[in-house]
Amino acid sequence: MRRSEILFLGDCNTCGTEQLSGTTYPQRISEILDKRIQNCGQTMATTREALQYFEHHQHDALSAVCIQYGLVDSWLTLSASPYVLYYPDNARRRLMRRWVKKWKKYGRKMGVGKLFGRDNQVPLDEYSRNIATIIESVSCPVLLIETAPNHDDSRNPAIQAYNGALAELAENYAHAHLVSCYDE
Length: 184
Known about the structure:
Layout: E1 6-10, H1 12-15, H2 25-33, E2 37-41, H3 47-57, E3 64-68, E4 76-78, H4 91-110, H5 112-116, E5 118-120, H6 124-136, E6 142-145, H7 156-172, E7 176-179
Parallel strand pairs: 1-2, 1-3, 3-6, 6-7
Antiparallel strand pairs: 4-5
Helix pairs in contact: 3-6, 6-7
């Protein structure tokens, strides 16, 4: 079997959602360029999962890596809540994610956020380090794709900060390129 030529790492913006009809942007790029792709987009995924996806799917013959994270990484959540990885998925992790979801729901009602504070799902410095790890592991071009604005305007300042980290990474690595789509 032929290996993928372009590796896509991202969240729901990369994998697509049931509510939207049509092909995902990785599929469209594959068709336009006539290249075999591996779409590792996963709903609710963060750059923590990106490291695992990358380790599992990277190889020396990649012609490009496309990275699009930030929507979930920038999400403001209770500091006291644990994060349960979505990849690789299993029954234990699904059970733990349900428990965490309930903890967050009741934690918000009880005011836990005021007691322990709130933080981004993946802190900005960790987000940058995770993406830099991938960039440093390849010699092919890496496309860093911004996260588009959210319908919930209160989320957009954090999304802009995470997009800013992508711009900084693109400036620091010659083979990394920013794909702007926030203001488009």
